[in-house]
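Following up on my earlier thread - several people asked me to post the actual chain instead of describing it. Fair enough. Here it is, all 313 residues.
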Amino acid sequence: MDYKTMPVHGILYVNCYQMNILCLLLIFQVMGKWWGKKTIQPIIAVHGQQDNAGSWDPLCELLPAEYSVLAIDLPGHGYSSYLPPFQNYYHTDFVAILRRIKKHLDMDKMHLLAHSEGSAICFSYATVFPDDVESYFGIDYLTNCYENETDKADSLCSIIDEKIKYGLRNNELSKTRTWDESKRTWIIAFPWSLNEKSAEILMKRGVARMPDGKYRFSRDQRMKAYEACVFTPEQVIKLAGKIKCHVRLIKATNSTLFDVGLTYCPGIFDIIQQKAKSFKLFEIEGGHHVHMDLPEKILPWFLELHERPITTV
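Reply from S.P.:
Thanks for posting it. Predicted structure:
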């Protein structure tokens, strides 16, 4: 069956570069960018926090023609809709987005490609729904957890106030900037990670042009209060023990995020090694956005994982 003509419950629009999945109870839209063949089940690519589907442009441009990758914009990012007012973004809700996409497209076992917080989302999905996933390729992040229950409880008041603060902001009234000012602002936010070329790629889906010719960041400001650290070490270890798929992880040597996320669960790789169909961890010299800055270094390991056949439809 051709995915371009597949019957759906909502609305599905596909061309060579753009996909619109209205699959979430008709409340909001999840947008994406589809690379390669449309007649096979795509690999689902998930970007990091406050990035967007453009994050995968440099890598997808290098892929052989027979590959199929659907890079999604998570809600609140890129071209996807915001959540309704007075709602907040949570890690487990993004895990549910993957579940809804799988069901909406009637997919067989999924192949997941992910970066940063997107990698944590895909790791959670692969452990909560282990029978859904054939492979998981994560770049410079795996998961995060909190150790001290008392500290977590004590921080709830500030977390709630922060969510309310950003929830009350009107995104349409946020500051506008020139293209170059917007680029500098984006780079300053990730000075250890993002170069000018990568920032401009993300800006194609991450800023909106205003009538006066200036630009406004289009991501939902509530993402600044996104709560990613939701599991205890015991929960993370328990989840890791459920993984069944092929796992490949990339650690960027010039980034600290990979190690920081694993501070309280140091034995997690041993568990993944025991439970996964296969497991490899690679270190690549580069920053946190290594998949954008140096996609040619990621490509061989990605292709190695997918030498096995990908589901045809």
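The mean pLDDT is 88. That should answer part of your original question.
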